[in-house]
Amino acid sequence: MTESLLPVDAYLVASLPEVWFAAVMFALGMYVVLDGFDFGIGMLYATRTTEHEREAFLSAFGPVWDANEVWLIAFATMLLAAFPRVYSALLADHNLLAIGFVFALLFRGLGPELREQRDDERWERYCDYAFVGGSAAAPLLFGVLAGRWAFDVATLSLPALLTGVDLVAVSIVTGAAFLAAKSDPDVASELRGYGTAATLVYLGGTVALLASVVATDAGGAAEAIRSPPAAAVVALSIAAGLGGIGLARRGAYRAWLASALTLPALLSALIALLLYPTIYPPTGLSVRGAVVSPLALNLVTVLGFPVLLLVLWYFKYLYGVFSGPVDAEGYGG
Fold first, then answer.
1. What is the CA radius of gyration of the chain?
2. What crossing angle do the helices spanning 16-44 and 294-321 adopt, rounded to 10°?
3. Cβ atoms 211, 203 nearer than 8 A
4. Taking the complete model, does pTM exceed 0.85, yes or no?
């Protein structure tokens, strides 16, 4: 009798279910970080009054826009592969939010593409509405969905809505910081004001969110919020937010961008901390209870993790190639 290449009744490592939970939340965090600044740029696009400034904003993230959405696909694929019961429950229980989010992404993506198809002021204006509206609606709906998932609350509850508002605000922060690092000093100075205001909204919204969860014990997360790891994440978020404001005021825009990008990363880490060891509070599913069989998880580990490493290398290369400032032609030359 030959031995199987992969263990059938045991994980490759004892903590493999937890490793996959961390990997799924990592993919979610990467999406929130990278597509988040895309959303922020889309919302800040509404502040532009001239055609050359609009073109400059689109040029700033055009080369990486589509690539950033890979992390949404990675999140969904990894969740389906390792925790299929959670994947199906998320879509079944939050189908309207999920559909709304997809439509928001559709409008966000089609706006700039269709804008170039006709040289008509009215057509361009409606395409801009689609772009800005989709850029604002997508993080709001995605945040509300995440709030419902993490805290087991209704769509219009305070924790869910505040999670959505937080994601909108932090997207504006990262979008402003990204544009400031790639724009000329005059535009960067203006963006600094939007980023500062959005940072204060984000920090205030996060405090209000955590207070509402503690007050209602939504999803049984009150105790987790009081834990040292969660307190450390909140403290780091406040430090990164206020530190980012200081960096922006000194004109250290690349350092501000680095600080700003830590905010959505820490928000994703906080959601993960509040979930674990439960992965789906509405049904009480735990990480170990929702994970696939050992053989299936071992197989997707062997096949999937090398692909994840390849994707990470590709993004390092992509952002290295397009790390410079926006081409002056984007401002109309």
1. 21
2. 30
3. no
4. yes
